[in-house]
Amino acid sequence: MKKIILIFFFASTCLHGRAQSITDSIQVLDEIVLSDSKLIHYASGVNQSVLNDSILKNNSRSLTSLLAFNSNLYFKENGYGMVSSPSFRGTNASQTAVIWNGININSQLNGQADFNTLSSSNFNSISIRSGGGSVQYGSGAIGGSIHLNNKLAFNTHFENTVEASYGSFNTKQTGFKSSFGTNLFSVNFGLFYVDSDNDYKFLGTNKVNENGAFENLNLNVNLGYFISKNDVLKLYSQSYIGEREFSGTLVAPARSKYEDENYRNMLEWVRISGMFNSSLKAGHLQEVFKYFENKNTDNYTFGKVNTYFINHSLNVRLSEKLQFKTILDYNSYEGAGSSFGNPKRDAFSTTILLNHKVTEKLSYGLNLRKDFTSGFESPFVYSLDAAYQVTDTYKILMNGSKNYRVPTFNDLYWNPGGNLDLVPESSYQLDFGQQLHFEYFNFKLNGYYIHTEDLIQWTPNNSGVWSPKNVTESQSYGAELEMESYYRVKAHQFKFNAHYSYTVSENMETKKQLIYVPFHKANTSFSYGHKKFNMYYQHMYNGEVSIIGSTLTGYNVGNMGLGYSLNENGHINYEINFKINNLYNTYYENVALRPMPNRNYQIQTIIKF
Amino acid sequence: MKMNKFTLLALAIGLIFTSCTNDDDPVDEIKGVYDNGMLIVNEGNFFQGNASVSYVSNDYSVVENNIFNNVNSRLLGDTAQSIAFTDELAYIVVNVSQKIEVVDRYSFTSIATIDAGLTNPRYMAFANGKGYVTDWGDGGSALDDVVAVIDLATNTVESSISVGEGPEQILAKNGKLYVSHKGGWSTNNIVSVIDAATKTVQTITVNDVPDEMVFNQAGELVVLCEGATQYDANWNPTGHTDGSLVRINVANNSIVSTLIFNNGIYPSLMAYADGKLYYQAGSKIYTINDAATSLPTESIINDSFYGLAVNDNMLYGTKTDFTAGTGDLLIYDLSSKSLTTTKSLKVGAAKIYFN
Asked: What keywords are annotated for this sequence in UniProt (chain B) (predicted)?
């Protein structure tokens, strides 16, 4: 750790000197600031919600809580702090792609991203892209995708933030962020550490969450440097190191422990030259886990995957109105683990994206992709999207897409049970959206239909061995509503947002709602600020869900927070925040027999300089 | 369902009354609402806490699911594995909950819970005035497997006897305990013979993955070995070891005969009634006599189950769909070899016991 920090400071001082000599008349383009400009430029008819700094700041550092309370995403969390998987539109966690700076980071082992291994603290913006996105983001982008972005700011600045908090269940969180930039150089650094006994009481019982302690560290370093007027080199790096005890249930005591690590490193070279933007990325992802059946012994099972990738994209802007992008992408995956030997997989894909602004009001996109994956045939996927600005305030969006998900290493190679005859899940989707934008009020309504076939499902065979098969066909349809409002009277600021989703997701054969898909989910937050004072209240309703052979009751949970800033205009700015989670001390289970925390408190200080 | 239980109870009380007034006319006393029927263990889904026990009356007219929960107003637990019986009590071994629920076998009223000192309990038997529970310890460790000794008066684990990897089923006879070592998370190929009084352990080597055991009418211990799939270092299947039916002379622990199944056929379930052994292999049910020197080639029923029992010329098989969350009891008449009735149970419907 110390080494990394040292290298970072050394690099920043060296490069600082050269900064002034090169021209500063550089157009700051999305290609430079972001690593994933297609998120903005090739998604005319796709609904996206962006959670920016102000929402990220006020909310929990847990990405699970943040998104559960501020989006239409539904989370399945195996007890607080344990494995947490997102889903939307009635799909499952492995049909929800998680994209870090443009790169799909779903696990190659189970196909999912665990949201309790990602801290919201170290990202500048989080975008939620509803609906199919396999053309742009590959396997797993069926229900939608969640984008974690780090921005590089090429302007002169030097900002630091230190935060520390303490809360119930002996929960300690510490963070440090630093951002430095000139017109040629930009770096940001983020470190976040959390440690919790997490031994909350199971309300209405004499039990506590006995085996639930966790600690983890997230480290992000992002660098950008103009090597010439037209060339930028960027480095993105993220690490996670975590250790968790795995909570038991109300009827199953636990003694296991899980250690996992994720390392993501990517180097990008962007060249901007007239109508051409070229981006070449190369990187390495590593995921490693160790599972200790009994935390008091040294016996463990493990799994590990190394992913090496190289990706080139070329954006051609033919005119102000017409542009296209070609992407060539190569990924090589190498796995190793206690239960699956040393499997390898290579995947190559070729993509073309086109965006055309026909008039001021009408634009559309056409996108095509073909994957070539060792071991099986991946489908040819495509999408078409369009947006029409009917009036100044009213906009219509439409898109249709074909999407897919390849079987994971676990599906193919897990022993016993792995099935090499699996084919990718394939899905098509239609989406229609309407948006109203007023000065103080925004409103979005989306309706969709998803049909998925060859769903991979693990079922036991006659000898009791669980094995995955392409068995099921499912369909989902529903509506999503988003509202936000902002109002200011003198020094009083009011903010309001609300989300509601209605989701039907059923097995085509049985016509039954899939397990762990709520028909209804809603949330709302309200915040008020006056000079140095701010407060918020947020509320979530998670409707009843089906579970195997039964149902799990819905629940309402509310959180509130108060904050006060000191020395707001000075060089050093202090903030103190107080939060109450589960305000009404509600007993609730997000996953059956795994009670969630009772009312709990947190006090946080933030110092900015 | 509840109605039926009360009707039965009323009937039972009626019968007791009747029997009291007619001393010279002996009538079988009904010992509780769950007498004269089958108790079926529904394992439930792993880590979903939905294990249960179902009751089906001998005439199949009464089916009551979730009887433990109905009587005691609490969940049974996670992944029920088996039930062992004394004259009065039923001991329900709940694997993932790491406990044994002790109930009155006829009323299902909870008597005690043994939840300390067990890690991965599987099956239970009684000998020497004590209970003996097979326990894998940690699934990933081959060195911590035991037979836990239960003090039946206090319902606590009083000691443990170290045995080889993956002790599974356990039978008691003449002060000896016979344990099949299926192998837990791994595979094994032994039967342990434990002297209950001295706790000394002997082993008999059989074929791979011995699981189900019965004593036949000749007094031999019959062990069904499932055989195992073999893998290379990369977990690619390379072949199978043979499944077998092994008969053991318990007087000297010697193997009387070993009938080998065709390579790649995994026999799994076994039941015994009226001098005939029934087993499942290759998704079919076969029967064999005690003295047979070769395995039959003709099946009697072309169906396969998750649990199997035979009684009074009727064959009972359970089936379950872990994904859909359903379980069923199928009842075949062995004379006509045809399905007579199907009853709806709960997810993970497995072992069948006659109460």
From this structure: Signal
- Six-digit token string for A214: 């966790």
H-assigned helices in A249-381: none
Measure CB to CB from residue B50 to each of A253, A457, A550 and give the nearest one. A550
The class (CATH top level) of A2-608 is mainly beta
A204/chain B closest Cα distance in angstroms = 14
pTM, full prediction: 0.89
pLDDT in tens, A193-205: 999 999 999 999 9
CA distance A339 to A254: 22
All residues of chain B having their beta carbon less than 8 Å from the beta carbon of residue A341 are 233-236
Q: How far is it, in rounded angstroms, from Cα B83 to Cα B77? A: 14
Q: Could you tell me the pLDDT band of residue A464, with boundaries at 50, 70 and 90? A: low
The nearest CA of chain B is from the CA of A301 a distance in Å of 8
Verify cis geometry, omega within 30 degrees of 0, for the bond prior to A416: yes
AA identity, residue B62? V
Q: At B197, which amino acid appears? A: A
Please write the tens of the pLDDT for every residue from A267-322: 999 998 888 999 999 999 999 999 999 999 999 999 999 999 999 999 999 988 99
- ipTM of predicted assembly, 2 dp: 0.85
Q: Where are the alpha helices (DSSP H) in chain B?
A: 2-21, 67-72
Whether B147 contacts B163, CB under 8 Å = yes
CA distance B237 to A418: 11
Query: Out of B47, B140, B324, whose CB is closest to A249?
Result: B47
Cα distance between residue A387 and residue A445, in whole Å: 14
Domain boundaries in chain A? 2-608
SS3 for B155?
Answer: coil
The pLDDT confidence band at residue A475, using thresholds 50, 70 and 90, is: very high
